[in-house]
C-alpha cells in the first residue's frame, strides 16, 4: 500500500505522483529483477504475470473517475443485471473490493484513479471540496487487487480544521 503525502500539493499533484511512482517501481522491477519476476510467475502459477505488470506501467494514463461517476456506473450495471454484487452500492458507502475490482476489471479493463469521496466516510484532515459533500481524496484501483494506493489533499484551512 502506498499513501503519498505532498507538502503544498493539491489532489491532482497527489494523483500524478502516485501514478508515476507505481509506474517507476514496476519499470524498475521489470528492468532489474527479471529472475524474481519469473520465479514468482512460475512458483505461483501466474502465467501472464509479466504482461500484467507491463500493462500497469505503460505510457497510457490511468483512467480518472469521480466517486459519484463510479457509483452511477455500479448502480446502472447492477440495475440492468450486468452484475450482482454481494453488497449493493449506493452513494455514501465506502466501496468494497468487489466494487473496486469491477470498475477496473470489467468496466475499464485497467487501472482507475477514483477520487472525490464522500466526506462522511473519510478522515477530518482530508480537504473538503466546494460542494461540502466530498473531500479531495483518491484511491488507485488496479485489476486483480483492488485498492493499491490511497491518498488525499490535506485540509490546510484553519476554519475548516477548527
Written description of the protein model:
This protein has 162 residues and is α+β, with helices and mostly antiparallel strands. It has a single domain, classed as BirA Bifunctional Protein, domain 2, CATH 3.30.930. Helices cover 42% and strands 17% of the residues. It has helices at residues 11-32, 34-43, 49-56, 67-79, 97-107, 158-161, and strands at 63-66, 112-118, 134-142, 146-152. It has a four-stranded mixed beta sheet with strand order 1-2-3-4. The mean pLDDT is 91.
Question: Would you spell out the secondary-structure blueprint of this structure?
Answer:
Layout (H helix, E strand, L loop, with lengths): L10 H22 L1 H10 L5 H8 L6 E4 H13 L17 H11 L4 E7 L15 E9 L3 E7 L5 H4 L1
Parallel strand pairs: 1-2
Antiparallel strand pairs: 2-3, 3-4
Query: Count of helical segments?
Result: 6
Give the strand tally.
4
Number of structural units classed as domains: 1
Name the quaternary structure: single chain
Please trace the helix and strand order, writing H or E for each element.
Answer: HHHEHHEEEH
The percent range for helix content is 40-55%
For the CA atoms, what is the radius of gyration? 17 Å
Amino acid at each position: 500500500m502506498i499513501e503519498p503525502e505532498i507538502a503544498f500539493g493539491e489532489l491532482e499533484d497527489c494523483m500524478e505522483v502516485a501514478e508515476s511512482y507505481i509506474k517507476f517501481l514496476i519499470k524498475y522491477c521489470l528492468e532489474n529483477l527479471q529472475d524474481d519476476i519469473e520465479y514468482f510467475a512460475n512458483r505461483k502459477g501466474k502465467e501472464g504475470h509479466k504482461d500484467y505488470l507491463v500493462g500497469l506501467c505503460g505510457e497510457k494514463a490511468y483512467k480518472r473517475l469521480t466517486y459519484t461517476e463510479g457509483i452511477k456506473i455500479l448502480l446502472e450495471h447492477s440495475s440492468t443485471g450486468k452484475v450482482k454484487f454481494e453488497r449493493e452500492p449506493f452513494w455514501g458507502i465506502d466501496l468494497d473490493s468487489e466494487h473496486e475490482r469491477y470498475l477496473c476489471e470489467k468496466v475499464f479493463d485497467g487501472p482507475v484513479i477514483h477520487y472525490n469521496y464522500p466526506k462522511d466516510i473519510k478522515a477530518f484532515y482530508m480537504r473538503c471540496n466546494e460542494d461540502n459533500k466530498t473531500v479531495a481524496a483518491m484511491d488507485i484501483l488496479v485489476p486483480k487487487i483492488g485498492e493499491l494506493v490511497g491518498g488525499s489533499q490535506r485540509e490546510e484551512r484553519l476554519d475548516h480544521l477548527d
